[in-house]
């Protein structure tokens, strides 16, 4: 899949010990189910397309459109060559918001569950409520994926995981978006069954 | 969730409903599909086209050297180098599927499409490219953000080709502003699809436009 590897691990193998052993197939490519990856350029195009979409949500595309092509290139090269400073020199601009606001316009997120038919849930969700209160991760889940969150005094059925950790549901979503987004500027959230051990 | 915008999801669904109403009147084949347990949905249409094909079979060894050729294809090639022939496979029926979904990120409709042979084998982008009229090809190559890319269908999860939506707002805004100025109602979906559809072989009969201006 063209999903970030960390997301795939959280979603499919989080109980596995590292290193994660995977099987690579060279025959019978499932044309109907998976995207082809013909070249590095295709990965760059896919990555930039995600970054653009995230900025459409955060800033109505204003920040990404004001950047020059060379800035887009620097973002990609920084990621490709594992150069933190090179990447963040550009990415920090995508994490800013106007002084008069308390956060982004909408939060770029996708919620994945292996038990559902659709590949992910993505909806419009504001980081700040009308009264100025910051929305939390728990608020997001209650709104877009209520089945994932256990009732008040019920048993916890699921783990809500980002980058292999379970952030507290009280964490402000704006903070998560600024600090725990993937390089494509999306929060990729996995909902997995609570392990029984 | 929020609809402070110009073209929100409810407006999208309303325009699609009007569009489909006309489609049903003229037998144009568009349908609405809803997602189970949700108010979300999308428009879709399937059509079949006969395409006559000429195939050149590859000469044995030289094609195997290409690094981009998938291994299973290389193994299927004839081992006999002298077997370079031109064969006409005759007519092939191609199934085209077009889906119109709403993008909440860009707050515009997006066109997803795919093509396959009747046995289910999907067509590659280069084969679909051949079906696109010359005049659109140049435009697509010049403006990469109008380009066609392969992406995961957000509801079905399968690979579809997509016309990138980030410029939709740019070309639709003047259309809508103008229609307000001359006080004539316009169906966003009809106008939008009449622009992007032909690029990928989807044509709209003119009666859609007449129907749109008659509404309300």
TrEMBL record, chain A:
Name used for this protein in its record: Autophagy protein 5
GO molecular function, one term: Atg8-family ligase activity
An annotated GO cellular component: Atg12-Atg5-Atg16 complex
Quaternary context: Conjugated with ATG12. Forms a conjugate with ATG12. Part of the minor complex composed of 4 sets of ATG12-ATG5 and ATG16L1 (400 kDa); this complex interacts with ATG3 leading to disruption of ATG7 interaction and promotion of ATG8-like proteins lipidation. Forms an 800-kDa complex composed of ATG12-ATG5 and ATG16L2. The ATG12-ATG5 conjugate interacts with RAB33A; this interaction is bridged by ATG16L1 and promotes ATG12-ATG5-ATG16L1 complex recruitment to phagophores. Interacts with TECPR1; the interaction is direct and does not take place when ATG16L1 is associated with the ATG5-ATG12 conjugate.
Gene3D superfamilies: 3.10.20.620, Autophagy protein Apg5, helix rich domain, Phosphatidylinositol 3-kinase Catalytic Subunit, Chain A, domain 1
Main location: cytoplasm
Source species, domain of life: Eukaryota
Any single biological process term in GO: cellular response to nitrogen starvation
Assigned protein family: Belongs to the ATG5 family.
Membrane topology: Peripheral membrane protein
Key words, A-Z: Autophagy, Cytoplasm, Isopeptide bond, Membrane, Signal, Ubl conjugation
Residue span(s) of domain Autophagy protein ATG5 alpha-helical bundle region: 41-96
Record's signal peptide: 1-17
Automatic annotation (TrEMBL), chain B:
InterPro entries: Atg3/Atg10 (IPR007135)
Organism expressing this protein natively: Acinonyx jubatus (Cheetah)
Protein name: Ubiquitin-like-conjugating enzyme ATG10
Xref: Gene3D superfamilies: 3.30.1460.50
Family assignment from sequence similarity: Belongs to the ATG10 family.
Domain of life: Eukaryota
Pfam family, one: Autophagy_act_C
Keyword Transferase among UniProt keywords: yes
Keywords: Autophagy, Transferase, Ubl conjugation pathway
Gene name of this polypeptide: ATG10
